Amino acid sequence: MLFRKLMQAALLSVAAVQTAALAIGSSPNLVIKPYKREALQDIVTWDAQSLFVRGERVYFFSGEFHPFRLPVPSLWLDVFQKIKALGYNGVSFYVDWALLEGKPGVFNASGVFDFEPFFDAASTAGIYLLARPGPYINAEVSGGGFPGWLQRLPALLRTRDPLYEHATDNYAANIGAIIAKAQITNGGPVILVQPENEYTGATSSVPEFPDAEYFAYVENQLRSAGIVVPFISNDASPKGYFAPGPPAQPAAVDIYGYDGYPLGFDCANPQTWPDNALPTYYGALHLNQSSSTPNSIVEFQGGSFDPWGGLGFAQCLELLSPEFERVFYKNDFSQGVHIFNIYMTYGGTNWGNLGHPGGYTSYDYGAVIAEDRDVAREKYSEMKLEANFIQASPAFLTAIAQNNSNANGSYTGNSALAVTVLLGNVTNFFVIRHAAYNSLANTEYTITLPTSQGNITIPQLGGTLSLYGRDSKFHVTDYDVGGINLLYSTAEIFTWKQYGNKRVLVVYGGPGEEHELAISGGGQATVTEGSGVQIGDKNHATIINYNVSSERAVVELDCGLTVYLLDRGSAYDYWVVDLPNDPVSGNQTNQTYFPSTPIVKAGYLLRTVEVAEGCIHLTGDLNSTTDIEVISGAPAQTTELTFNGASLPFKQNTSTGVVTATATYTDCPPFTLPDLSTIGWNVLDSLPEIQAGYDDSLWTTADLTYSNNTIRNLTTPVSLYASDYGYNTGSLLYRGHFTATGSETTFYLATQGGSAFGHSVWLNSTFVGSFYGGDKYLSWNDTYTLPSKLTAGQDYVFTILIDNMGLDEDWTVGSETMKNPRGVLDYSLSGENSKSDISWKLTGNLHGEDYEDKTRGPLNEGGLYAERQGYHLPGAPTAETSSSGTCAAGPVDGLSAAGVNFYTTTFELDMPVGYDIPLSFAFANVTKPANTTGGVPAYRCQIYVNGWQFGKYVHNIGPQDVSHSILLILLMLMPLLADIYLFRNQSFPVPEGIFDYHGSNYVAVSLWSLEAGGASVSDLSLVAGAVIQSGYGSVGLAPMTGWERRAGAY
């Protein structure tokens, strides 16, 4: 025991001399350093510790959200409000170049691609923005954000190659001007801009890497467009590239940042936390690389992508759990990270072919906000606790992270525990975790902490503290609560507020834990609610010790402080949403107003809070009847309390000022969803190309005897790379004409379409064979036996259908992987003299880069006949086409041979007003093989809703489907649970605004059977998710341009 105390004293002494904390109001750096000119602006500045906005220190606590993955602008505010409600004050967003310049030189940022509504929504919610326009973004999007036409650019991408740099000029000028207009200097929400993205790794073909000349070019493009806010970088790992140092590097950004994904993307093993995966080196490395700027993590892991054939995002959610957030994020905070962005916070959907081939339609990511915008995940609530603590702790911004090389055993004398420390002028922060961060042990401990009253061993009133496995906590000393000194607390702080001469502090602990806090000069303490609280007094400090339980305890002290003692689960129900502030700061967090913001217990979601003229106005969402309690910040004589505009009967405690009421969840009126198995569908053949007499004269002739694609040399007489002809997205079709010699017996074919792609081949109208696909196959070659002897002198045609799964990303500079071609790579026909004996035509989406549908952008539709005709668009005359018929169950009826059918139906929705009810399509995956080979039936589907492609399903690969056997059981026993199961288990959510919830909806489904015996969808249902009574208001429709006869369609 003596040794332990001596060791603790020594460590405390060392820590005291290490710290050199800064004053909260210390002068910021006013100059944007890389540019030899006057300061570009003085609104957003920084020093070594943090950002400043208008001279006030700001912790930029941000979540990643991509507007292009939610193409309903009227829902962007919904997501922003849910992020703001977390306690975040920032959002980072990528811009996908491929969606904005589908044709070289033609930039289109209108409709759902218009950024002004996005910026307006951010300002309304009180969110600062970090803009990340690339031009390369990665982001699990097709081509990493590069438009497909770059495949034929004979230049080395992401380098100083003038051809590449000039190819980016039009995009950079246009998007730069859009972002510049939205900067805070112009009254907008943008305070940071990131040039390039994860420019961190290169092949040996780029010897100048990291190339300051190239990086400066990207920076100057944006500065020339009017960007004046600071530039921030994001090394994929902390390499120090282009850091301002000291010493400053050439082409240095203003603020150096880096990324971290410490658990990787192994969702198949969600309980595995590998040894030594916790990055404890960030703080020391930052001091070596960029000590002049805040420690900035521009992407830290908030979830994981999931590949074709993966196990689904439910497992990613389990891997990147609330426990992950507690251990890994607090580890980041303990190293002085003061700019922090979590990737992703809302993932959204890879609609309309925008995703890369390594992922499927859902981009849920296991993020805190689900793809359907639900916020019921526990990790959402955990992040609310952590972010609110950071925002309520201005001293954290100037506390200095200490060297943590001696963290194990420090302050506790228990080598099984590690304590990392940030020391301030007054307030100190201590983060405790297990030394083996992935330990599952429950470890008891006491801790000796330095305070203004000297070293104190805690708990003082007896008992022990405890740390459960895969957990981490903040302990604080000399923490300011509106002028009252919290001498120490082992319970974690959610927030505190000051209103008049009253202060309210909310703390919490994990279930079954013991915690203790002490208040200097607290005076007499009275337990006014709850039990299990022990009160003591030592050296004029009031000590509160409590055992955590689901029963709330409240302690009032003579000094004017009220302490709420909660368990973590109860703390999840509390909210702090900034009040509207002054005309300058708008709804942004402002420390002048922050201490008086109400603390509200409100259940599922609180969106906005406003206190005006004695009234409290709340908006929020309910999933059940909820007790409302305003525990701080209510007017002394509150005259009205409203929730979603309706006045609520309330009571106000005349002593404490606490306001209580009940917000009643009104049962949702009944609504009806169509039964897709009986609704009736029009069906048409979407592969007329295999019928005798089909005319392909309007198709593109493959006549290029060269390709500018620099990654693969041609092995065919003419290029058959789709992008060489402007076809960059969706299904691809080839027709190869030849005159038979009569000796042909086999056909060799090599194709490439990216992970999980497939192809099918016909000779005239006879099916030859298919490649069914697999997640590990990016390309495929096979030799097919022709079905019968060919007649010499007779003309024949091969028809090849290829599923293009998107273009590969280009993460490693010099790899040129984005240029991996799509389409036919090679072929040979036995019995022919040369490959030139076959002449080729090809098509993809109608008119390629001169794409027809400017509303939904350049990627939304592919090359299927129905797509080229625009039959996926509302109002299409599918019932009138010559090849159409009708069937009751649509794709469930299926087709009897290899080919493609296109099913369309129209139905009305009349969903209840005032409720957020997400709708989703769900495929059931039959476990019993139904094909002739004994394997899983091979078929592929696309789902279009009012013209928007919102689902791409590969039945034999998955994972975006549900277990048919489980579904049948639930349907028999608990139909409501069956709907929820369908919705949550990798279904295809389609948001309101794409669906018209109060009108007519046009739905189309393509079904491609890759098997000779045909295929039918085992089950396709439209199901509802959780029914949330919402105060958000009405949702406007995305643009719904309908069908018109397309000139030149074939």
Fill in the keyword field for this structure.
1050 residues, alpha+beta, TIM Barrel, beta-galactosidase, domain 2, beta-galactosidase, domain 3, 5 domains, eight-stranded antiparallel β-sheet, seven-stranded parallel β-sheet, 14 helices, globular, disordered N terminus
Strand order of the largest sheet: 11-12-13-18-19-22-25-24
Described by strand count, sense and barrel closure, the largest sheet is:
8 strands, antiparallel
From the 3D structure, determine the CATH topology of the largest domain: TIM Barrel
How many distinct helices? Answer: 14
Total number of beta strands: 57
Which strand-content bin applies to the residues? 25-35%
Pfam family, one: Glyco_hydro_35
Family: Belongs to the glycosyl hydrolase 35 family.
GO molecular function, one term: beta-galactosidase activity
EC number: 3.2.1.23
Commentary on this structure:
The protein has 14 helices and 57 strands. It is α+β, with helices and mostly antiparallel strands and 1050 residues long. It folds into five domains: 56-376, TIM Barrel (Alpha-Beta Barrel); 406-572, beta-galactosidase, domain 2; 575-671, beta-galactosidase, domain 3 (Sandwich), CATH 2.60.390; 688-863, Galactose-binding domain-like (Jelly Rolls, Sandwich); 875-1030, Galactose-binding domain-like (Jelly Rolls). Strand 41 and strand 42 (766-771) form a beta hairpin. Helix 2 packs parallel to helix 4 (116-125), helix 5 runs parallel beside helix 6 (212-224) and helix 9 packs parallel to helix 10. Residues 1-21 form the signal peptide.
